[in-house]
Amino acid sequence: MNGIGLATKIVNHEVNKAGLVDLIGEVGEINVQGEAQQKLDLMANHTFIETLSKREIVCGIASEEEDSFISINSFDMQNKNKYVLLIDPLDGSSNIDVNVSVGTIFSIYRRVTPIGSPVTIEDFLQKGRNQVAAGYIIYGSSTMLVFTTGKGVNGFTLNQALGTFYLSHPNIKQPEDGAMYSINEGNADFFTTGLNNYLRYCKAGDDDKMPYKARYVGSLVADFHRNLLKGGIYLYPKSAFDRQGKLRLLYECNPIAFIAEQAGGGESDGKGSVLDIEPTELHQRVPFFTGSKNMVKKLESFLKIDD
Ligand code: AHM
Ligand code: MG
Prior knowledge:
Elements: H1 2-26, H2 35-53, E1 58-63, E2 70-71, E3 83-91, E4 102-110, H3 121-124, E5 133-139, E6 143-148, E7 153-159, E8 164-169, E9 180-182, H4 193-203, E10 213-214, H5 220-230, E11 233-236, H6 249-262, E12 266-268, E13 288-291, H7 293-303
Helix pairs in contact: 1-2
This protein binds 2,5-anhydro-1,6-di-O-phosphono-D-mannitol and magnesium ion.
């Protein structure tokens, strides 16, 4: 967590400078549009990998930005490092050039192969239930690190002047109900019948319920964080063109699901917990829903007709 905290400060500094780089770009000195965005993705990836691989604790890293996993010190048979890290270094990065919140998501497992040997794919393809820690960083109006080690969820806010994290949100609990739904509804024509029925339910009001508010940033971390604190549901379903949805099981869904569960919230792939899925490949995608516990249950009841 120390290493993650240090890498967060570096990435935070670079993300905050992105607007300044843009100013220079506009006067023609640097071609930033598109390129800067890609640079920040790669910079975040590089920063987390370099920072974590220098610690005597991580034996392997898998990143959304890398084709395959990285084995650390694989030729050093004295390597006693026990943990593997899976990371989405800069999630929602298309939001950077419009100054909207982005995030980092990470997940930590104990390796399953013997200590001292090079890591293998089995060390990374573990069920989400095996996570020993997971968290995210939100680079927002303030920068926060939110994580769990399986004993509740705590949120730390970065004091940028001092470079220190403060426990600003101890023992976060997600409200059991909420009134916000977060989805890219532009794809609705390609969603299943059950999901479209649920979206109609979200927008309908009656004596017991006002229509839900639609809130969608397009950065998973920002949408999840808001719903975690205020109550709500985030949806990234499968569609006619994305049969498995868009989000990655190992870098996005599992860590967020672990945090949701630890905060008393709900999470699902539409049928059951994503934490119980046996992964088959590093960049596997799954439909993903997470939010207030009762909202996720309600959604699952609508999705039953899709079977
Ligand atoms: P990325 O990892 O390429 O940034 O994609 C993940 C992001 C999520 O943060 C966000 O919720 C989703 O993609 C938005 O997708 P869409 O533009 O289809 O709504
Ligand atoms: Mg991502």
